[in-house]
Amino acid sequence: MENLWLQKISENPGHSRWYIERFRTMAKEGVDLAGEARLIDAMVPRGSRILDAGCGAGRVGGALAVRGHDVTGVDLDPELIAAAEEDHPGPAWRTGDLAELDLPDRFDVIVCAGNVMTFAAPGTRTEILRRMRGHLADGGRAVIGFGAGRGYPFDEFLADAAAAGLAPDVLLSTWDLRPFSSSSDFIVALLRPA
């Protein structure tokens, strides 16, 4: 099965443009789009190396760069990467497949927000998590968030993370630190190497 984001783009070639404009409009309207970045920023000192995995148009990575971090963003969609470069100059934005992630750098935090893991083909999810683990610096953590009902049950995700060598430090149900429970409809998993 191919990446679900690529499938969505092939079915609707204007989807990436719609996505870009949607977030640009929300930013102009003053919508708070930096909740994920605030959590990540609180986890590390200034100047930390952060990978925005599945960065889209650069919303999270751009906010982290403004806060003084050294950010690299990777996304499969070249149109989203072009928007990230235009809207958020500074970070290193790269087009690439997270299932083939192979960067020379190691990161203090890898953030994967915006339901990215649910767009990945099911057969690649453990490999994506394995590659994230391999890109963590000593003491680094991966922070992954996505919603329920998107074809990737939370227990399956946690089993994949364990298979990839990642263990939960903290499980939350929102980016604003609400505790995770069996009835949560969202997960934010702070994972460390096992």
- Overall morphology: globular
Number of domains: 1
> Rg to the nearest angstrom?
15 Å
Do you know the CATH topology? Rossmann fold
Query: Strand order of the main beta sheet, please?
Result: 3-2-1-4-5-7-6
Instruction: Report the strand count.
Output: 7
What's the end-to-end separation, in Å? 29 Å
Give the structure's gist in a few sentences.
The protein is an alpha/beta fold. The protein has helices spanning 4-11, 15-28, 35-43, 59-66, 78-87, 116-119, 125-134, 154-163; strands at residues 49-53, 70-75, 92-95, 107-112, 136-147, 166-172, 186-193. The chain has a seven-stranded mixed β-sheet, sandwiched between helices.
Descriptive keywords:
single chain; Rossmann fold; 7 strands; alpha/beta; 25% strand
Description:
By secondary structure, the chain is of the alpha/beta class. The chain contains eight helices and seven strands, in the order H-H-H-E-H-E-H-E-E-H-H-E-H-E-E. The protein has a single domain, classed as Vaccinia Virus protein VP39 (Rossmann fold, 3-Layer(aba) Sandwich), CATH 3.40.50. A seven-stranded mixed beta sheet has the order 3-2-1-4-5-7-6, sandwiched between helices. Strand 1, helix 4 and strand 2 form a beta-alpha-beta unit. The chain is globular. It starts with a helix and ends with a strand.
SSE topology sketch:
Blueprint lengths: L3 H8 L3 H14 L6 H9 L5 E5 L5 H8 L3 E6 L2 H10 L4 E4 L11 E6 L3 H4 L5 H10 L1 E12 L6 H10 L2 E7 L13 E8 L1
Parallel strand pairs: 1-2, 1-4, 2-3, 4-5
Antiparallel strand pairs: 5-7, 6-7
Helix pairs in contact: 3-4, 7-8
